[in-house]
Amino acid sequence: MTITRNEQIIAAYRDGKTITSLAAEWGVSRQRINQLVRAAGVPHRHPGMAETKRLTARAG
Known about the structure:
single chain, mainly alpha, globular
């Protein structure tokens, strides 16, 4: 099974990457990343949550 670009973007967002970093990495707008995340039903994170998730994973 081939993982599509959208699935890779959504997985990376779930893993803690920010919308801004994903947009830069994939060469699309932040709005497009938001559309993909919303369409997949992934809850929106507040700014700073990615860093909190990384620190929690590192400590745990």
